[in-house]
Amino acid sequence: MAFGNPLNPTRPSISEINVTPLVDVILVLLIIFMVTAPILQTGIEVNLARTRTVEPVDPERAAVITISREEMLFYRSNPINFNELGEWLRREVGDSGEAIFLQADEDVRWKTIVAVVDEVRVSGYHQINLVTKPYLEK
User: Fold this and answer.
1) Does CATH number 3.50.50.60 belong to domain 50-134?
2) Domain extents for the chain?
């Protein structure tokens, strides 16, 4: 038994599903995901120097200090003040003895890199590794 139209009993009812609202919702969700996906990437964008020997670093697990092109300092993805670097390391790394990874944009002045390395060493962390990218990237 189909439901009919009480105002016009001779006209049959429409039994198909209207998919237009569903398509509209899907398109809106697609646009939202396309806009938010690049924002969710972790890390700071830096143009690393190239070397022949490179070992991969997982920024989610390792203690990574980043110096951006503008010479701003980040611990993982958090912007930090240079004077608070030792405090951040003691709070985040503690006495675990794990290596500290330093990545800097290739245009950062050498003086800035040396100052950050010195601050890390003064804070009690002596195993510092520099992050680079390989010459031949695919």
Assistant:
1) no
2) 50-134
DSSP-based three-state secondary structure for 137: coil
Query: 129 has which bridge partners?
Result: 101
CA distance 48 to 92: 24
Neighbours of 101 (CB within 10 A): 19
Closest by CA position to 75, among listed 101, 97, 99: 101
DSSP of 51-98: ES------TTTSEEEEE-TT--EEETTEEE-GGGHHHHHHHHTTTS-P
Whether the CB-CB separation of 105 and 91 falls below 8 Å is answered with no
4-46 pLDDT, tens digit per residue, is 566 666 666 667 788 888 999 999 999 998 888 776 665 677 7
Give 102-135 pLDDT, tens digit per residue.
989 989 999 999 999 999 999 889 889 888 888 8
Beta 73-75 vs 78-80: how paired, if at all?
antiparallel
